[in-house]
Amino acid sequence: MPPNPVPMAVSPSRRPSSSPPSPPDPDPDLLRHLLQLSRDVSPSPPPSWHASLRVGHNFSSVPRNFKQLSLLFEELLQHTRGCDFAMPRSASLCFREMFLVFHRVKALFHDSSGRSRAFHLFRAERLAAELHEQVVDLATLLDILPLAELPVSEDVRDLVRLLLRQFRRSSTAVEPAALSLRRDVLELIAEIERGAVPDRDALQGIFLRLGLDDSRSCGREIDRLERDIGDCAADHRWAPVMVALAGILRYAKCVLFGASIPRSDSSAAAGGKQSSSALENITVPADFRCPISLDLMRDPVVVATGQTYDREPIVRWIGSGHATCPKSGQSLAHLELVPNRALKNLIARWCHDNNVPFDASDRNVTATVTSNNKKPADRDITTPAGTNKAALEAARMTASFLVGELAVAPSTEAANRVVHELRLLAKHGSDNRAFVAEAGAIPLLLPLLRSDDTGLQLNAVTALLNLSIMEANKRRIMHTDGAVDLFVHILAKGATWRAKENAAATVFSLTTVHSYRRRLGRHPRVVELLLQMARVGPANAKKDAMAAIMGLAGDRENTGRLVEAGVVRVALEVSGEPEAAEEAVAVLAAVAKKGGAEAVAEAEGAVARLVGVLRRGSDWARESAAAALVEVCRQSGAEVVAELVAVPGIEWVIWELMEAGTERARRKAAALARICRRWAAAVEAERTARYSEMSIPASSTTVS
Questions:
Q1: Is the pLDDT of residue 696 over 60?
Q2: What is the DSSP string of 217-233?
Q3: Whether residue 178 has pLDDT greater than 70
Q4: Which of 178, 191, 507, 555 could form a disulfide with 548 if both were Cys (CB 3.0 to 4.6 A apart)?
């Protein structure tokens, strides 16, 4: 080997996709950075993890060896401070390459430390291979480093040679204990796939080897595993296994450690609305929530009216025989669903920034519906667990276990823990909702709406809201004796605004079935309490109350009751509040369409308020305002049209909506323009006729 060899560049194929920063130019700065990096590398998995999760020898030895290399950089830094030392060019190049390797190793360990235990277990070979490649690169650099030309002690030279021998012994082998644990986990998954309930002792033994010994550690593992599932969607080998294990973790957490203690909710009294899973302490942007399920959308699609929904809820809506847009009530011109990829990318980025699990897999299923039976022609949409038999069986066992525990809960505190778990289980996935309901949860949850315990009442009504998203569960709820009265009790005497909001949201969910919409509207207090909530409640309460009223307004029979109760006045008031304006204007449009146009026209300031929404509202609000104005103008006569035409700048507002509004908004704006033109033509014709009658023909004048 020549005395001053030039180090070979590390193969680009071995470098991670995220490029490390460029090495600093001055040698002292470079050495200081190397010293800091050698101390920063932390072991992964953490030392507290069970030995079965040590996927390879390198994961424990490399951090230790890096810290020993820090002695080399310390001695070199001392020489650069004390005398004029010019580092050989070959050594400088070696250290610059080491800087890149150190950064890649640090990034690898940092990423690995935030992963789930299952990620390490199932991707052990890949993790070991990635680290082995970096160790080989480092061994090459140490081999060609000109130690003889560096001002370091013989002890440091001996240490570097020792580390070089250790790095050369690096391999991609995975520890036998990790392979054994993985085999046992796969056998457990296979056992559950066959429908067998796992032995409790065997289950506990596997969990102890995974380092999961209490409810809190299980909860953290589930959250991390769900994030890892999204990252591993392209890994067809292990992604399904990780999905299955996530379901088994939920089951085992309840069976081995009991239902978890619900988090204290300091915002409940203030009316702050939060999710109850990974989103519990995060405010999800309203545009990212599905209008049907109220969940964060995972696969947003656009229907014919231009409204966006999560794919699974809208497919179920269409599959149940509906041919209208749930949000606007407008008939769907066609039943094709178009993926909203721009919104999906925004949601994915938001989830990444907020550390929220997001399944980014693209489910390319188009919902087409035959014109005869109104059933989806393609397969139903499912969550990842929906195609995983082990995950389904685990969810079924979890639901059955929790419902059994709720039936014999010895205290309010115990019941609250179980109901909280049911609430979380029903939060995501139609399969989970079906399992919970089939296990008999609904008749047990409904009486808890009268509980004096604030947390139990909130968890119960939220669990019922989550369950009501599924069509079959709507029937189970409404066919339970006294169900409507119990929701009315929450609307009237709910302990917190959040409980009232979720009760109103449940009413909205139930109104998607026509017969239930009419039945709810006939109850003597439902309309009254929803309007009261819209008048005096906080922003979220107003929004949920208006949504429920909009659902009721979809039935002509309910319109009279709503008008008599003062819905037009309340909706006009709420339309001025940004958080609930869309729902309030949609209520006005629905009331006008179903026979309440006269009431809207007679309300003071209604036309001016609707025109104001046309100017400054959101796309959906402008669409609803245009629809309301069209109905009012058509059914209430020329006086309303005259009031509309008298609004300054109305021509420009209508023209702008025709150019830049949604498809439905453009149609409604065109209809408004035609109404205004006809009114203007009629006024001009009347003026001409009146002028003609007042004129005296010249031929009839005689000269005396």
A1: no
A2: HHHHHHHHHHHHHHHTT
A3: yes
A4: 507
3-state class percentages of the chain: helix first, strand second, coil last, to nearest 5 = 65, 0, 30
Tell me if the pTM is above 0.85: no
The encoded tokens of residue 288 equal 């990212």
Output the CA torsion 184→187→192→195 (10° steps): -140
Strands, E, within 343-435: which ranges? none
CATH of 27-174, picked from 2.30.30, 3.30.1760, 1.20.1260, 1.10.3470, is: 1.20.1260
Picking from 126, 129, 118, 128, the residue whose alpha carbon sits closest to that of residue 52 is 118
Distance CA 501, CA 497 (A): 6
Query: In this predicted model, what pLDDT tens digit does every residue of 73-111 receive, in sequence order?
Result: 888 888 777 566 678 889 989 999 999 999 998 888 888
d(CA 399, CA 251): 8
Task: List phi, psi (to 5°) of 376.
Answer: -60, 135
CA dist., res. 425 & res. 439, Å (int): 13
Are the beta carbons of 329 and 583 closer than 8 angstroms?
A: no
pLDDT at 46: 55
User: What CATH superfamily is the domain 286-325+332-354?
Assistant: Zinc/RING finger domain, C3HC4 (zinc finger) (3.30.40.10)
Q: What is the pLDDT of residues 570-600, one digit of tens each?
A: 999 999 888 889 999 999 999 999 999 999 9
